[in-house]
Design brief:
Length: 181
């Protein structure tokens, strides 16, 4: 489905294809350069090859219990959202969410649309009941986005991340029950 953004461009939210590997890797590397809110560093992102990225995409195509959606604006991959079901049987009702969008495309409502699509998928998932993730405590915008969707803070690991300037940041765990068993 096409979404019309406030800046006049068109957003397509879609599943990935193996051929997206180079563009998705480029997007990931760019993200680690322009935001300190992701746990991956720039150096770590540079270590991934296109082959690694192809395998990363294949894992979602082969395993329908996980979700990866891409945000494509005018043919450019500008972000993604993923939900990964826990590999443990005792936690098969848990899905861990991750989202990131290129800075050039922030504040256009792409995050809200990706969250809507991913949560809709999770509700249809046969066993997923709770979505959770960690977010750095200084990432106010992301926390607001999650609150808008009813996610609540349920834990905090003090000083869990060290930023580029050497200061420590807490990691907040947020979660939401999306359906009952
Ligand atoms: C967090 C992120 C995904 C948000 O994406 P986005 O497309 O810019 O978000 P949206 O435009 O949909 O806005 C989402 C909400 O953020 C809130 N928001 C926007 N600007 C804000 C600000 N400066 N401070 C606080 N909240 C803000 C609004 O409530 C907005 O919802 P609304 O438009 O319905 O009112 C994006 O900024 C990003 O990728 N950041 C870098 C990576 C990252 O932090 N990922 C999350 C790791 S846990």
């Amino acid at each position: 489905m096409d979404h019309f953004l406030p800046n006049g461009s068109t957003l397509v939210i879609r599943r990935p294809r193996v051929e997206d590997a180079a563009a998705l890797l480029e997007c990931f590397r760019q993200l680690t350069m322009e935001t300190d809110f992701l746990l991956y560093s720039q150096a770590e992102a540079m270590r991934f090859s296109i082959r690694d990225e192809e395998d990363f995409i294949r894992q979602y195509l082969l395993q329908p219990r996980h979700l990866l959606l891409l945000a494509e604006v005018e043919g450019q991959i500008t972000g993604s959202i993923a939900i990964n079901q826990s590999r443990f049987e005792k936690q098969s009702h848990l899905g861990e969410l991750g989202i990131a969008i290129l800075r050039s495309h922030w504040n256009l409502g792409i995050g809200r649309r990706l969250m809507t699509a991913a949560i809709r998928w999770a509700i249809e998932h046969p066993s997923m009941e709770i979505i959770h993730f960690g977010v750095l405590a200084n990432n106010e915008k992301a926390i607001q986005l999650y609150r808008n969707f009813g996610f609540l803070e349920c834990g905090r690991l003090p000083q869990a991340a060290k930023t580029i300037d050497g200061s420590y940041v807490d990691l907040i765990t947020m979660a939401k029950r999306i359906k009952n068993p």
